[in-house]
UniProtKB/TrEMBL annotation:
Protein name: BMP family ABC transporter substrate-binding protein
Domain ABC transporter substrate-binding protein PnrA-like span(s) in chain numbering: 29-317
Membrane topology, record value: Lipid-anchor
SUPFAM superfamilies linked to this entry: Periplasmic binding protein-like I
First-listed, main subcellular location of the protein, grouped into a coarse class: membrane
Alphabetized InterPro entries for the sequence: BMP_lipoprotein (IPR050957), Peripla_BP_I (IPR028082), PnrA-like (IPR003760)
Protein family: Belongs to the BMP lipoprotein family.
Subcellular location per the Swiss-Prot or TrEMBL entry: Cell membrane
Signal sequence extent: 1-23
Keyword terms of this UniProt record: Cell membrane, Lipoprotein, Membrane, Signal
């Protein structure tokens, strides 16, 4: 994808307020930049990053910039250089692909803090944000197993390391010990063709509830599931708007909220380097709206399970998933 030209969404000129004289001061947000590998208009992951950026703009009265289609070493390095010229000292790379890029260049920009997702931040001015996805997967798996009529459900995930995949499997088995869970992987966040082929295979094998755990293909998968009169568990966003009778519930990651948390920590001089985990307890993860086809008793049961998990960290099977560091 062709690179977008940087542009600020808001310019503020306030007489009497210090500007670039504090350039490089730790903890003060000057300007904020966002890099996304695909687009901010996907309605799922990229859109959430964009909303988080706009929230920072609104709360801190700073200029913000974004670039789309940034997924190569050369493109990342060029974007960072341009951001530096615009006094950006907080850069978000909206995906795991930015971890290695940021670790490699961070030492060249000691007054800039680099934030990415689901990786290993190794430099003192890099931070990786991680969603502790096991619990949301567990509750999604419980819902899928509860509703399945064929006792066959499926997961179309991007990668084996996704914690929500194991959570989904164990949650499904907890709800129904006889459930059959088929696990398939695209090895790419956005390969719709592969995901749809895997879905066709699942449908042929009588799978009736599918969890498309990849933000780049889950919308197209759910649309196909809807055409087939089957059921889905939404991913990343509350996807009930794709069909309340199709989407039983969703496992929601509030990436936009994490931007607010990071901005607050950075502005207070409290943003640590390394990896930070977020879960239900931080308000960074939640379950989406439940389908009206789900029984009231099950919804009530799930609400109680989630409240217990938030309070104690324990899942319905008595295990703790390890929610990681709190955000506040």
């Amino acid at each position: 994808m062709t690179k977008k030209i940087l542009f600020p969404f808001l310019f503020l000129f306030i007489i009497g307020v210090a500007g670039c004289s504090n350039a490089g001061t730790s903890g003060e947000i000057q300007s904020v930049g966002l890099l996304v590998p695909e687009t901010i208009n996907d309605g799922v992951w990229g859109t959430k990053g964009y909303k988080g950026l706009l929230s920072i703009q609104s709360n801190y009265d700073v200029d913000v910039y974004y670039k789309e289609g940034i997924h190569t070493k050369q493109a990342v390095e060029q974007a960072i250089k341009e951001y530096k010229e615009n006094d950006v000292n907080l850069i978000f790379g909206h995906g795991s692909e930015y971890n290695e890029f940021f670790n490699n260049v961070a030492s060249n920009y000691p007054k800039t803090h680099f934030v990415s997702f689901n990786g290993e931040a190794t430099e003192k001015n890099t931070t990786s944000l991680k969603f502790a996805g096991y619990a949301m997967g567990f509750f999604g798996g419980m819902t899928a197993a509860h509703y399945s009529k064929s006792d066959k459900i499926g997961v179309i995930a991007a990668y084996e390391w996704q914690p929500e995949v194991q959570g989904f499997l164990e949650g499904a088995k907890f709800e129904n010990k006889d459930i059959e869970v088929r696990l398939e992987y695209t090895h790419n966040w956005g390969d719709q063709k592969v995901a749809l082929n895997l879905l066709d295979s699942m449908i042929e094998n009588n799978v009736d509830v599918v969890y498309p755990a990849g933000d780049g293909y889950n919308v197209s998968v759910i649309e196909k599931i809807k055409e087939e009169g089957l059921y889905a568990i939404g991913y990343v966003s509350d996807q009930s708007d794709l069909g309340e009778s199709t989407v039983l519930t969703s496992t929601v990651q509030h990436a936009d909220k994490l931007y607010e948390i990071v901005a607050r920590k950075f502005s207070n001089g409290e943003l640590p380097s390394g990896n930070i985990n977020f879960d239900f307890q931080d308000g960074a993860i939640s379950m989406g709206k439940f389908s009206p086809d789900i029984s009231k008793d099950f919804k009530k049961e799930m609400k109680k399970h989630i409240e217990t998990y938030i309070e104690t960290g324990k899942l319905p099977n008595g295990k703790k998933s390890g929610s990681g560091s709190p955000s506040s």
